[in-house]
Structures are given as C-alpha cells and as structure tokens.
Amino acid sequence: MQNIVIQAADLTKSYRNGGEASLVLRGVHLSVARGECVFLVGPSGSGKTTLLSILGCVLSADTGQLDILGVDARQLSAAGQAHFRRERIGFVFQRFHLFNALTAVENVSVPLSLLNWPKARARERALELLQLVGLEERASYRVTRLSMGQRQRVAFARALAANPDLILADEPTASLDSESGLKAMHALKDLCHELQKTVIVVTHDPRIYSLADRILRLHDGRVVGDSRGLRRPVKRQEPGIGRQAAA
Ligand code: ADP
Ligand code: MG
Asked: What is the pTM of this model?
C-alpha cells in the first residue's frame, strides 16, 4: 500500500446561512503519511471540525482534490461515502457516543455487527481491543459504570474494531480531566502505533501536544503551520490573505 494516506489540495468549503454563504475552508493543502499521529490545532471556529468531517467523508468539500487511502473522495456518492466510512475509517468524539445500555464489550462489537460479523467472533475481537486499552477486566461492565477516561478508551477500542486504516478524533480529551485525558491519549497512541494506524486528532488541549508526531495549525480556514515544516513554510495560494491569517 502506498505511504501517503491523505492527499488534499486546495479544499474549500462554505456553509450557507439563509441566503449568505460563509467560506470556512479557504484552500487547505495537506499530506499525511501512513502511521503518522497528526494533531490539528487552531482557534475555535478556524474550521477544524469541518476539515475533519471532510477527511472522514461525512461532509463533501465544495472544490479541490482529496485522495483518502487511494480513493478519490470527491467522486464518491453518498452511499459510497457511507460504505467507505464504515469499512475504512474509525471515529472518536468528545462525548464518546457510546450506548449507555450496553457493556463495554458490546459497545466495541457494534461496528462489527454492522459488518455482519458472527457474534462470537465480534466478541472475541472486542475483548482483544479492550485488552489493548487496558480494560479487559471491565469488559462486561455497562459503560455507565466506567469513569470518563475509561469510557473514552472504550470508544478508542470501538473506533479500531473494524480494523480501519484511519482514525479521526474530534477533541477526544475535552470531556476529561488532565490525568485521564493524557492516559487515554497514551492508550490511543500506543494502540495506533502498534497497529500501524494513521490518526488525526483535532484538539486545543496543549496538555497532550507532546504525543503528536506532527502538529498542523489551522487559522481562518487555512493550514498556516506544520510543526515538521517550520523551515519550509506551507505554500499559500493567495499570499496576502495567508500572511494575515498567520499573524
Ligand atoms: P472548529 O472546529 O475549528 O471550531 P468548525 O469547523 O466547527 O470550527 O466551524 C468553522 C466555522 O463554520 C464556524 O464559524 C462555525 O460557526 C461555522 N459552521 C460550522 N458548522 C456549520 C454548519 N453546519 N452550518 C453553518 N455554519 C457552520
Ligand atoms: Mg470543532
């Protein structure tokens, strides 16, 4: 498989509020290699969630090119996007989005049931993943009996259940205290490292920045910084606006 998992060029996205369209992504370029753990940071409203949603094929860009895992994402139909998401991408959210009535192992099995795995095999796989995040002893607990940090680790295990190549997480530590946030992120990092997964984490939690292989900074709908490319500034299409955004 090729080494570049995401290649985006000149992505734009606007939202329409009433009659007026507001441009939220203004020409995003990025390239992410297999196995990288990339943090996407930037002020509130800079377009982080929008960009992550586009990379996850939840939203479509208005213009630009986007290749994800060797697929031209802009050519996928809505059904094609849904199928691609289910098979290739794992999602993690700030508020976990677990089923409270289910146990940890049942929650991790959900994506596998959706892919029609036999129940016993799904359970076996879910238990393996819970072990990897250090929760094997809590596998049969309902998730409401777990701490917030443990619930997020269940969500990480679930995101990896279907063996996706790419994990996308939107502010995964925002509902956690410092210590459990760091512990949960360590678990995700180790898990992804061990399984050679690519991870993109949207965050503005500086407590976890040290866990990133690379930090991309978004400002006003553009990538204005790349921690591996500080001596090689990100190319901009419209220098005037870019300079302003970087200030
Ligand atoms: P971030 O995650 O960096 O805070 P977002 O991508 O959520 O930024 O939002 C970027 C901008 O787009 C914000 O100004 C936000 O208000 C606007 N926005 C986000 N989602 C929508 C939507 N569904 N409809 C209209 N405007 C939106
Ligand atoms: Mg956001």
From this structure: 0.89
